[in-house]
């Protein structure tokens, strides 16, 4: 058994109380939700925090999937399993169910959360790619109830680094609902439950005449950050969906990413996967948008 | 004992509803293990017990300049901090390995691999012990490491083992087998010669339970009790006696339940010795349990052979000779557990299942700045590497000859009338009948139909591969005249005692790590003596309770201790017969044994059961002249030869041409391990081994960066397969009994681990035939398969 260094532990009683503790304790404190990344890092002593603030008691407050106007709003403490099982979410954004089916294993999915996944900001993280693909907005709350809303591009500052300050907390993810949409996610992994070698999400929105009004592609594990690729969107907008268009998008994805060679695969291979998976997910997303 | 209701399924149709003997029965140990009532080393709690944590080297190669323990000693809860210098004073800084090398217990001069033991802390709990490690200040002078095995013998390579007198390079040993000249002559006249470089990368056994020990030294009695995760408790006890100078009769080694071994728990690790020293120093019981990373980076790895295979044949597919040159990476210390005369284990069986004219192997083993080990992970003493070599090179030959790989194998098998068959490297295969095994596997697979399907799919651009491997293993070491571990002959004792009420206890030297000994050995004794398995207690894993023997590894438990159990039961039965003759007032010759009782020939009504005999043996009244009371016996079994199980495996894979992901669609395994004692347990062993094979073929590898940092230090980095990566196994069997084993059984524990990797790799290579791929090394991750498809398959090291 790997054992962490000593730390203090407190269970949160409300969002504002948790933020109050963060304000007081600063960077020596860390929120713990599912804990599937944080606790292994602490046990390996790669991360050492003096204080852990357990926000699991806030699940009633922050665990929800809720349509509000032209958005779907998801509480940061919504668990993977809830995302996987939500028919409402799958109907609006099938990419979520695609992704959740290949994230880790049931034990992790029972406890891990959307907010925790995004805040870990691992470049290989699946839900970051999903949220990037869907052009999500992140609601960050700070001291005194102050809230700000940032895009995914703004949210991801660097590997394992986000826009959330030491005294702030990610509370909600907002996904814009637009007509004619379809989305899909694919991941290549060395083994079930492993981090992605590369994964890709695609979302398209079709006009009544079948042309693409908008499209987005989000890739994971091919660079320091999970980012959308504006050039792909530009290439697809206004066009009729077709194989050669997907190929074009795939080629853009491959040259726009910046993968590194590691044990999961060579940079060349990952670049190839960025292409291959972009094409595959676009194909599926269009088929779903049409149906 | 609580009874467990047996499932009423057809898979138990040969279940032992009968009272005795062989056949499917649920495992006697399972109620305990499945209900969480097993007792593992980490479950041992003793009054006043302290906890030990080990400081390990962050560097692969560095001089230890100084170690300052003062802050750690002052840390709360710390009872002792011990360094290499402390051990040096006790003469315990170095210990012998199982291969006649030495290994540092704690580093004194240099660290030689990342993760090497440098110091340890004993504290009131494991948190305090671990926290104190952070306070030990070690000054290192970092040295260039030797990581690339191919450069280990370069003239300018840094010298790793300057602790060895007169050592000037990183050479570990040379070994050869077969006849070089004869083989060269055959190669010279062959129609076809195929060469292939083949790497079997370094993998790790990764048992679910890591290694650990609880040492309890009683200074007054001078007595040491050691609970430890060991597959060979008796061999360990003797070595502790030799190393630590403690008298052997004062040492008790207890191997409680073990959560998987796979060879990882054969060697003596520095941690065990540290726990003993910790207990001696503090006067308290001390527990050491390594964590997952420690297990992966520092304990016995397996494989790491770089092989060049060569095969010579006639144009019509008669294999003439096999030759190989091997570069073996043994890490920083030669920690291989192998019989003394076999530094390369039983790699000599690389001639496989084929009747050939000549064979030769030349091996060079070297030191590198990596963890020590070598023989581990269900490899039957390097037979895994040997089988992989021959089965891969035979497939390369099939491709060269454009011959079906099944047909090529069938054409070259050793024939049934050739057994016992002496190979060109001197191994005497006891028995075998290969063709029926191969045919059965092909029939289960629907081989011809699969080839048709493959042809259709290829026409459509789909990638489907069919891979075959056929293996012969050599398992069950000794005999003792040839085989010993550090001078301890490889023979096994066994004791059987029948109690007055007809219940029995059998005491074994081997030790289960989860493979069902408590059931299998009860069944062996039951078959011989007619007492139901439920009435036979199997005692093992405690040196105070069991006779001497060499332990469980290399699939040797059934071949050696299984034979011992059968023979000791027969010895008891012979005595029972004498008593029965007195009870029935007939001569011994007038009695016949009908499982469970002796009856008078021709008069079945006159009979006494083994239970009645047992009571008589202990009861009032006279026994026949010369017969002592009691009903028990002891033997030590020295096998006359190894046993040679074989099997035919067929694997079907599909590869996604876009992502290069390999999916194992089907796997057919037909095993022949001679007499089958409990088919359910055999199938369980085969299923586990096949899963191992999928892991090694597709994802497992312990790799290092150029500085010698281990890149597989967690189970996130070192992947082992899950149920999602494996198909439903399709198993079959044939039975070719071993002629020299009392019940005809052969070992099976490692067959599937040995036999499956080549079948999977052969299937992948077969699938990639449209890309002109002749070979690709494990692990066949999607990235490596994609490289192969692009014509740039590279070795993993």
UniProtKB/TrEMBL annotation, chain A:
<keyword id="KW-0274">FAD</keyword>
<dbReference type="InterPro" id="IPR036683">
    <property type="entry name" value="CO_DH_flav_C_dom_sf"/>
</dbReference>
<feature type="domain" description="FAD-binding PCMH-type">
    <location>
        <begin position="2"/>
        <end position="180"/>
    </location>
</feature>
<keyword id="KW-0285">Flavoprotein</keyword>
<protein>
    <submittedName>
        <fullName>Xanthine dehydrogenase family protein subunit M</fullName>
    </submittedName>
</protein>
<dbReference type="InterPro" id="IPR036318">
    <property type="entry name" value="FAD-bd_PCMH-like_sf"/>
</dbReference>
<dbReference type="Pfam" id="PF00941">
    <property type="entry name" value="FAD_binding_5"/>
</dbReference>
<dbReference type="Pfam" id="PF03450">
    <property type="entry name" value="CO_deh_flav_C"/>
</dbReference>
<dbReference type="InterPro" id="IPR051312">
    <property type="entry name" value="Diverse_Substr_Oxidored"/>
</dbReference>
<dbReference type="InterPro" id="IPR016169">
    <property type="entry name" value="FAD-bd_PCMH_sub2"/>
</dbReference>
<dbReference type="InterPro" id="IPR016166">
    <property type="entry name" value="FAD-bd_PCMH"/>
</dbReference>
<dbReference type="InterPro" id="IPR016167">
    <property type="entry name" value="FAD-bd_PCMH_sub1"/>
</dbReference>
<keyword id="KW-0560">Oxidoreductase</keyword>
<dbReference type="InterPro" id="IPR005107">
    <property type="entry name" value="CO_DH_flav_C"/>
</dbReference>
<dbReference type="InterPro" id="IPR002346">
    <property type="entry name" value="Mopterin_DH_FAD-bd"/>
</dbReference>
Automatic annotation (TrEMBL), chain B:
<dbReference type="GO" id="GO:0008805">
    <property type="term" value="F:carbon-monoxide oxygenase activity"/>
</dbReference>
<dbReference type="Pfam" id="PF20256">
    <property type="entry name" value="MoCoBD_2"/>
</dbReference>
<keyword id="KW-0560">Oxidoreductase</keyword>
<dbReference type="InterPro" id="IPR016208">
    <property type="entry name" value="Ald_Oxase/xanthine_DH-like"/>
</dbReference>
<dbReference type="InterPro" id="IPR012780">
    <property type="entry name" value="CO_Mo_DH_lsu"/>
</dbReference>
<dbReference type="Pfam" id="PF02738">
    <property type="entry name" value="MoCoBD_1"/>
</dbReference>
<protein>
    <submittedName>
        <fullName>Aerobic carbon-monoxide dehydrogenase large subunit</fullName>
        <ecNumber>1.2.5.3</ecNumber>
    </submittedName>
</protein>
<dbReference type="Pfam" id="PF01315">
    <property type="entry name" value="Ald_Xan_dh_C"/>
</dbReference>
<dbReference type="InterPro" id="IPR046867">
    <property type="entry name" value="AldOxase/xan_DH_MoCoBD2"/>
</dbReference>
<keyword id="KW-0500">Molybdenum</keyword>
<dbReference type="InterPro" id="IPR008274">
    <property type="entry name" value="AldOxase/xan_DH_MoCoBD1"/>
</dbReference>
<feature type="region of interest" description="Disordered">
    <location>
        <begin position="1"/>
        <end position="21"/>
    </location>
</feature>
<dbReference type="InterPro" id="IPR037165">
    <property type="entry name" value="AldOxase/xan_DH_Mopterin-bd_sf"/>
</dbReference>
<feature type="domain" description="Aldehyde oxidase/xanthine dehydrogenase a/b hammerhead">
    <location>
        <begin position="35"/>
        <end position="144"/>
    </location>
</feature>
<dbReference type="InterPro" id="IPR036856">
    <property type="entry name" value="Ald_Oxase/Xan_DH_a/b_sf"/>
</dbReference>
<dbReference type="InterPro" id="IPR000674">
    <property type="entry name" value="Ald_Oxase/Xan_DH_a/b"/>
</dbReference>
């Amino acid at each position: 058994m790997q054992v962490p260094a000593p730390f203090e532990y407190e269970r949160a009683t409300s969002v504002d109380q948790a933020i109050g503790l963060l304000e007081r304790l600063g960077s020596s404190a860390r929120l713990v939700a599912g804990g599937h990344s944080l606790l292994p890092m602490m046990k390996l002593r790669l991360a050492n925090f003096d204080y852990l603030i357990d926000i699991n008691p806030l699940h009633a407050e922050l665990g929800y999937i809720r349509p509000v106007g032209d958005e779907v709003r998801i509480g940061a403490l919504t668990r993977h399993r809830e995302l996987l099982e939500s028919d409402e979410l799958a109907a609006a954004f099938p990419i979520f169910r695609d992704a959740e089916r290949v994230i880790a294993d049931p034990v992790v999915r029972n406890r891990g959360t959307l907010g925790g996944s995004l805040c870990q900001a691992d470049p290989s993280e699946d839900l970051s790619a999903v949220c990037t693909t869907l052009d999500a907005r992140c609601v960050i709350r700070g001291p005194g109830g102050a809230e700000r809303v940032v895009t995914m591009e703004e949210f991801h500052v660097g590997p394992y680094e986000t826009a959330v300050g030491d005294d702030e907390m990610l509370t909600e993810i907002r996904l814009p609902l637009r007509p004619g949409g379809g989305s899909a996610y694919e991941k290549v992994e060395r083994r079930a439950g492993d981090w992605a070698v590369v994964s890709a999400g695609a979302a398209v929105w079709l006009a009544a005449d079948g042309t693409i009004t908008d499209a987005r592609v989000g890739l994971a594990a091919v660079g320091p950050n999970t980012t959308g690729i504006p050039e792909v969107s530009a290439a697809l907008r206004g066009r009729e969906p077709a194989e050669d268009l997907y190929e074009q998008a795939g080629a853009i994805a491959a040259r726009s990413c910046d993968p590194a060679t590691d044990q999961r695969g060579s940079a060349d291979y990952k670049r190839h996967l960025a292409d291959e998976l972009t094409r595959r997910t676009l194909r599926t997303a269009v088929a779903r948008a049409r149906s | 004992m609580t009874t467990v209701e047996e499932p009423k399924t057809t898979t138990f149709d040969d279940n032992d509803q009968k009272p005795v003997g062989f056949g499917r029965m649920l495992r006697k140990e399972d109620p305990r293990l499945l209900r969480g009532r097993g007792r593992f080393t980490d479950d041992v709690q003793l009054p006043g017990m302290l906890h030990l944590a080990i400081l390990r080297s962050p560097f692969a190669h560095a001089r230890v300049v100084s170690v300052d323990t003062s802050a750690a000693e002052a840390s709360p809860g710390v009872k002792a901090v011990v360094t290499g210098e402390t051990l040096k004073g006790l003469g315990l800084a170095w210990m012998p390995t199982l291969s006649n090398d030495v290994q540092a217990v704690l580093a004194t001069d240099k660290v030689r691999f990342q993760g090497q033991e440098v110091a340890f802390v004993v504290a009131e709990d494991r948190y305090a012990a671990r926290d104190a490690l952070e306070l030990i200040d070690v000054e290192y002078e970092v040295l260039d490491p030797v990581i690339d095995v191919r450069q280990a013998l370069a003239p300018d390579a840094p010298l790793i083992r300057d602790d060895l007198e007169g050592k000037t390079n990183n050479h570990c040993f040379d070994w050869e087998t077969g006849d070089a000249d004869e083989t060269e002559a055959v190669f010279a006249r062959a129609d076809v010669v195929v060469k292939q470089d083949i790497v079997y990368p370094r993998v790790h056994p990764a048992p679910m339970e890591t290694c650990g020990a609880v040492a309890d030294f009683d200074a007054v009695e001078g007595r040491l009790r050691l609970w430890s995760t060991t597959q060979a408790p008796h061999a360990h006890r003797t070595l502790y006696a030799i190393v630590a100078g403690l008298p052997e009769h004062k040492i008790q080694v207890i191997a409680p339940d073990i959560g998987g071994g796979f060879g990882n728990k054969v060697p003596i690790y520095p941690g065990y010795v540290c726990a003993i020293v910790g207990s001696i120093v503090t006067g308290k019981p001390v527990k050491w349990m390594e964590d997952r990373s420690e297990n992966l980076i520092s304990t016995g790895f397996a494989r790491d052979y770089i092989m060049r295979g060569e095969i010579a044949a006639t144009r019509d597919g008669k294999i003439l000779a096999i030759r190989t040159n091997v570069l073996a990476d043994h890490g920083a210390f030669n920690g291989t557990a192998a019989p003394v005369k076999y530094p390369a284990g039983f790699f000599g069986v690389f001639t496989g299942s084929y009747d050939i004219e000549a064979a030769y192997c030349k091996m060079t083993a070297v030191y590198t700045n990596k963890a020590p080990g070598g023989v581990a992970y269900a490899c039957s003493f390097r037979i895994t590497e040997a089988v992989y070599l021959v089965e891969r090179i035979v497939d390369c030959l099939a491709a060269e000859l454009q011959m079906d790989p099944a047909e090529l194998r069938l054409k070259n098998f050793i024939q049934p009338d050739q057994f016992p068959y002496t190979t060109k490297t001197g191994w005497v295969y006891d028995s075998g009948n290969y063709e029926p095994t191969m045919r059965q596997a092909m029939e289960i697979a629907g081989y011809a139909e699969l080839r048709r399907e493959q042809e259709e799919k290829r026409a459509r651009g789909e990638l489907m591969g069919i891979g075959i491997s056929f293996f012969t293993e050599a398992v069950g070491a000794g005999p003792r005249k040839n085989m010993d571990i550090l001078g301890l002959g490889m023979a096994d004792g066994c004791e059987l005692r029948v109690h007055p009420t007809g219940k029995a206890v059998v005491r074994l030297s081997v030790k289960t790590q989860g493979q069902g000994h408590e059931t299998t050995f009860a069944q062996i004794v039951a078959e011989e003596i007619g007492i139901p398995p439920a009435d036979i207690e199997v005692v093992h894993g405690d040196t105070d309770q069991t006779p001497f023997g060499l332990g469980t590894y290399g699939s040797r438990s059934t071949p050696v201790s299984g034979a011992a159990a059968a023979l000791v039961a027969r010895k008891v039965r012979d005595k029972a017969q004498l008593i029965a003759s007195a009870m029935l007032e007939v001569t011994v010759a007038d009695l016949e044994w009908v499982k469970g009782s002796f009856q008078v020939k021709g008069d079945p009504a006159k009979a006494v059961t083994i239970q009645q005999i047992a009571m008589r043996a202990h009861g009032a009244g006279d026994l026949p002249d010369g017969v002592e009371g009691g009903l028990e016996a002891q033997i030590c079994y020295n096998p006359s030869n190894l046993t040679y199980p074989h099997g035919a495996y067929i694997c079907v894979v599909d590869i996604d041409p876009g992502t290069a992901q390999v999916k194992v669609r089907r796997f057919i395994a037909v095993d022949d391990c001679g007499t089958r004692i409990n088919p359910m347990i055999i199938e369980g062993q085969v299923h586990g081994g096949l899963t191992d094979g999928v892991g090694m073929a597709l994802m497992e590898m312990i790799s290092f960066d150029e500085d010698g940092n281990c890149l597989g230090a967690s189970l996130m980095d070192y992947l082992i397969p899950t149920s999602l990566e494996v198909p439903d196994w399709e198993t079959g069997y044939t039975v070719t009994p071993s002629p020299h084993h009392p019940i005809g059984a052969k070992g099976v524990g490692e067959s599937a681990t040995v036999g499956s990797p080549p079948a999977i790799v052969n299937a992948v290579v077969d699938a990639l035939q449209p890309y002109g791929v002749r070979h690709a090394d494990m692990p066949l991750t999607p990235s490596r398969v994609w490289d192969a498809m692009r014509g740039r398959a590279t070795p993993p090291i």
